[in-house]
Amino acid sequence: MEILSENTCFGGVQGVYKHSSDACLCDMTFAVYMPPQARAQKVPVLWFLSGLTCTHDNAMTKAGAQAWAAKYGVALVFPDTSPRGDDVANDEAYDLGQGAGFYVDAVQNPWAPHFNMWTYVTEELPKLVAAEFDIIEENQGITGHSMGGHGALTIAMSLPDRYKSVSAFAPIANPTASDWGRKQLGAYMGADEAAWAAHDASLLMADRGFHSPVLIDQGTADNFYDLLRPQALADAITQRKQAATFRMQSGYDHSYFFIQSFMQDHVKFHAELLK
Amino acid sequence: MEILSENTCFGGVQGVYKHSSDACLCDMTFAVYMPPQARAQKVPVLWFLSGLTCTHDNAMTKAGAQAWAAKYGVALVFPDTSPRGDDVANDEAYDLGQGAGFYVDAVQNPWAPHFNMWTYVTEELPKLVAAEFDIIEENQGITGHSMGGHGALTIAMSLPDRYKSVSAFAPIANPTASDWGRKQLGAYMGADEAAWAAHDASLLMADRGFHSPVLIDQGTADNFYDLLRPQALADAITQRKQAATFRMQSGYDHSYFFIQSFMQDHVKFHAELLK
Lengths: 275, 275
What we know:
homodimer, 275 residues, nine-stranded mixed beta sheet, 9 strands
C-alpha cells in the first residue's frame, strides 16, 4: 500500500492510499479518515460507498463527514466506485463502466476481468484496511449515496454478520426495476434476471431485512427520484415491519449539499450501534 | 443577476449566481449561502475570500461552512478570486492573472482593465448582495484563506466602518516581503512599493490595527509557511497590543482539511461579533 497523501483534519488524519488490487486486476485508490481517538485505541469503522461518476475523492472532500467521525470516534473508508485504467473496459455513458461499478462482480465480457467491486469492497479492501489501520474489525458499519446507497444496503443485508449498522442517502433502491440498474446489471451480470435479485435492496429487504434499525434519507426534490424508486424500499420496509427510520427530507436534491446536511445524523447513528 | 444553481443545504439555500461586473468588465460568478433563519428575518453576512487558483466553488464545496452558518444564523458569500474569460489577461503561472487577483485594483497593463478585485469585493458585490439577499448591511464580517486571508485582513483594516469582524486561515500575511506578493503587487500596481503598503496585512496591523478582536489560524505543517510570513503578522499584533487570538495549529497544512477543521470556530467568532 502506497501513501498518496495524508492531511491532518479535525485532529485526525485524512489519507489517500493506492494498492494493487487482485479483485479488480488494477491499481485502486481509496481514502481513510482516522479520527484522533485512534491514537490511543482501535476505533469502529464506517464505510462510505459513493455514487455514479465518483471516485474516493468526492465524499472525502464534500460530504463533511470528518467533523462527525472525529466527534464520535469512528474511522471512515471511502473506496473508489470501479476499477480504473487505460486497459480497463469503459463505456461512453456516465452510468456504465469506469465510475459505475454498481458493487457487483461482473461475469460478462468486456467487464468480467476487472469489474469485481463486490469482492473488492466486501473482501479485499476490508482485509487491507484491517491490516493497515487501527480499526475494530468487529465494529463495522456501512453507508453510501445513490449507487453507493444501493451498495451499502445490498452488502449489509447480504453480510449481516460483518456489518452492525447500515444507512443510506438517496439510494438506488430498486435497480431491477429502474434504468439505473437494469442496464448495468444486464451488462455486468447477463440477461438472467434471477441473478440480479441479490443486488436489489428492496428485494433483499422483502426477503430478509436487517438485524438492526436502518436509516434512510431521501430528498423530496431529488432530480433522480424516479430512477431511485424509494417507494419500493419503503414498501418493503413497511411490509416486513423492519425497524427503520425513513426520512423524506423536504426540498433536498441529490447533491452533496443534501448529503452533508444529514451526515452528522448518519455518523452518530452508526457510532451508537458500533459501540 | 442570473441564478446558476440553488440547492437546499442545512435547511437553507446554497446558490450560485452570475452577473455582469462593471468593476471587472466581465461576467462574474459568486456563491451565497442563506441560512434557514433568513426565511423569517434578515441575517448578518460573513464574506469568505478564497486563495490562489480558487473560484467561488472551492470553499463552497470543501470548507464545511454551511453547517455552522446554519447553526449560527449567518449568510455566507463566496466571491471568485479574479476576473475570468478568454478576453481577460492571464499568465501561465498559477499565481498571477486569472485565479490570482490578490484583492487589489490593477493600474498596470495588461491587467488594468479587468483586474479590479478590490473595487469588486468592497463596492460592487456588496451592493448587489445587499440588493438581492435578505442580509443586514450593518452586520458584516470577513474571512478568507491564504490570498483570501490577505484580502480579508487588508479589506477589514481599510474599511473598519464596514466590517465588524475579521479572521483569517493561513493568510498571506506580509506580501510586500514575500514571493507571494512582490510579484503580484509589482505586476498589478507597478514598481512603486509605497503603494503596496495599503495591501499588506502586517503593515496595516502595525499602522492602524482593527477595532475588535482578530482571529488567525495557521497550521504548523503548512507547506507554504515561508511564503505566508505569519511571524510578521504576529509581530505586528504583539507590538501594537491588538486584541487577537493567533493560533498555531499543530500538524495542520494549507489544505481545506485544515480550513474545515476550524471553520466552526471562525463562524461562531464572527456570529458573536455580528449580533
